[in-house]
Amino acid sequence: MDAQTYGGADEVDPADQWVVNPETGAYELRPDGPGASRPRSDADAVPAPAAPARVPRQRSRRHPPAPESTRGSGRRKPRQRKRAGRRKVLLWTGGVLSSALVGTSAYAYYWYDRLDGNISTVDIGDVGSDSVLADGPVNILVIGNDVRVGRGNEAYGNRDNVTGHADTTLLFHISGDRSNATVVSIPRDLMTMIPACETRKSDGSAQVIAGSKVPTRFNESFGVNGRDPGCTMRTVEGITDLEVDHFMMFDFNAVKTLSTAVGGVKVCLKAPIKDEDGGSELDLPAGESRIAGEDALSFLRNRHGLKNESDLDRIEMQQKFVASMMRQLKEDTLSSPMKMLDVAEAATKALTVDKGIGSAADLVTLAKELGRIDLKNITLMTLPVVDNPDEPKPVTVVPNPVEAPKLFSMLQNDVSFTAVKKEKEAAADKQAALLEGPRAEASEVRVDLSNGGAPGGSASAVLGWLQNAKGVTRSSNVGNAPEKVAATTLDYAPGQAAQARALADLMGLPASALRPGTKDAAGTEPMRLVLGADFKEAGTPVAPPKKVDVKQSRADQSVCGA
Prior knowledge:
This protein is of the alpha/beta class and 562 residues long. The chain is 29% helix and 19% strand. The protein has 12 helices and 26 strands. The chain has helices spanning 78-118, 229-240, 252-261, 293-301, 311-331, 337-350, 360-371, 403-412, 419-427, 429-432, 458-469, 497-507; strands at residues 18-20, 26-29, 46-47, 120-122, 138-145, 166-174, 181-186, 191-192, 197-200, 206-209, 216-217, 246-250, 265-269, 273-274, 283-284, 287-291, 352-354, 378-382, 385-387, 397-399, 446-451, 474-480, 489-492, 514-516, 527-531, 552-554. The strands form 8 sheets. It has an 8-stranded mixed β-sheet with strand order 4-17-12-5-6-7-18-26, with helices on both faces.
């Protein structure tokens, strides 16, 4: 559009010739402007474009009026006209881009603000982490609250329970290098000690809730005697000896809304399931089905038709559902912005989280990190358990005394259960070679011990164990190390390699603990062993186990169950 079309106005931006008619709300040509000689009808009016929303605290830009010297009614010279035309193009293009950027920013702000308003948070005091993703491994506890509040939920049990208990609980362990994750289901009927925990009242004051005096069902770690999700986090820390960084809690209604938001979740059954007396109307055929809403909740709650109709059987079906939802999110939802917004809206309304991840920005950061993990490197399993030996007819379970400690040790040492493990082992071949070669006799091993983060008294205990039980008589306790270390280390000279291998065998040291030097030592100079935070007690190997006997599945696998 050229200004000459409207009476040859020199240097007049066409946009300045249009004004809003207050009666019609439409843009019309200025009545006193060039080219306004003929009256305009309603048909000529141009609908007013919607003004882009402004981002709070963002100032609108004001453009100064054109200098008087550029205004006039005479025709421009051809050269001037060409240059002015370029300016118009730049002005129009810049205006469009500015509007687009402001509109996009406003839209993003609107959604972040809206999602922030959806999120419910709980102040859990000093447990957990203030950062979204701390350096190193991260542990997130996902708590399924069995509160029955909500339409249709009374069919699943006690409708008077308005607080709920820790029902379906998943410990989500994310590796330090973010290459893999392990999801461990904790049975609700696991018998364990529940520690005392500090909670926050509505007025912000602290209240300490007493712990259990005898082993109690795990599901009572939340909702009983005023226990909050922080109490469940502390209970899991006591069971696993892991630090739990954050929690996310969802209820029955969340299952319905989230499964609907993702467009339904695919499940596969070996045999049909029909809940005839369990309170729901679940009726699924053999093979693949897509379930959402009430059917999704019924599926997760159902025990009927399963192998033993037990909570452990139900957990296995829940893991398949979770894995399927992960696939749905990654393969379908993430590629659709509108679906992502639907899921974000549903998730933020449905979840309750700790203040460390209590904003939309925090949850987006967390989701991005998790989204980078390949599904084949996410392992799902159930905490290894055995029937409670204290019950004549067991209805509860306790941690498997052999396999559970192995699992906890692997998580504590950030060991992967997937193909990533093989890649890491290949990279560690050079380090592992340090353990290859001849061994010295125990009586020839010379070593000074110091405590660098192990439990108090560990150096003295190890010294007595080495000298009295293992024959390492040339060992000494030199007190505390100059600083604390996370992992146990053994420093030695090239000529002491045989001694180092012998000591590694006796103490169960991993190859990563061996730190060979380059300078030869004197004949009587001892090696230096620093007991780190990974050391538990004398006689317990420092090296984590390489496997655990527990049924496992991968998030990328679609397997029919039941």
